[in-house]
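User: Sequence recovery, please. Input:
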């Protein structure tokens, strides 16, 4: 069945909002808002448009900085690539006589200190809240599975309008959530964030050392 044109318009709005949500300038305020919403007890992205957008926003943001929860070798390589991108921007800004943007001055940058703070104060608290978010979503899905089979998109739209997309459209099924990893295990729901992201992330800040700074200085000079 073809998706109605007005349904496509709603999806386009969602995609634009997700891209804009990767701006970390208000990350701490946004994280506080997420904590409050998840703690209210009535969080339901299957029925509440604002909750749906909130869930999508945080999963998208976590994906955008997902290297922070990867094993060390992957995390280090992506960190170095990102830093080089920032420094290249700073070089252009310096050449144009413009003020340098944050993190863009290669002559005054400590990679070890920067990454340690980023992981401890930005990434880890975010993934801890995503564990709660995953658990709430999984509980909602389990409740829906106990009820009658899901209705079609057209019937959903006729009942709920276009403010809320069908939950099946945004939350993968259990089969889709199964991930083949190098550890040969699968996960669904909160277990994925808890057992993989939260497991990897705390080990990364201590691994950054002055040697990392020296290696980067040699690579980027």
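Assistant: Recovered sequence (221 residues):
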């Amino acid at each position: 069945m073809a998706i109605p044109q007005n349904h496509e318009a709603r999806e386009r709005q969602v995609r634009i909002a997700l891209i804009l949500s990767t701006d970390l300038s208000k990350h701490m305020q946004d994280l506080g808002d997420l904590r409050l919403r998840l703690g209210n007890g009535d969080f339901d992205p299957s029925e509440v448009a604002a909750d749906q957008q909130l869930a999508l926003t945080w999963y998208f943001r976590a994906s955008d900085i997902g290297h922070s929860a990867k094993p060390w070798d992957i995390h280090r390589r992506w960190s170095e690539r990102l830093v080089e991108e920032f420094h290249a921007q700073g070089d252009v800004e310096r050449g144009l006589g413009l003020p340098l943007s944050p993190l863009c001055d290669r002559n005054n940058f400590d990679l070890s200190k920067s990454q340690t703070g980023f992981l401890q104060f930005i990434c880890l608290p975010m993934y801890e809240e995503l564990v709660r978010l995953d658990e709430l979503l999984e509980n909602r899905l389990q409740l829906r599975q106990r009820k009658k089979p899901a209705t079609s998109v057209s019937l959903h739209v006729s009942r709920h309008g276009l403010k809320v997309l069908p939950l099946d459209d945004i939350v993968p099924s259990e089969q889709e959530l199964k991930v083949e990893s190098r550890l040969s295990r699968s996960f669904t729901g909160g277990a994925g964030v808890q057992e993989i992201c939260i497991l990897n992330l705390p080990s990364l800040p201590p691994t950054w050392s002055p040697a990392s700074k020296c290696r980067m200085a040699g690579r980027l000079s």
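Residues 14 and 53 are 7 Å apart (CA to CA).
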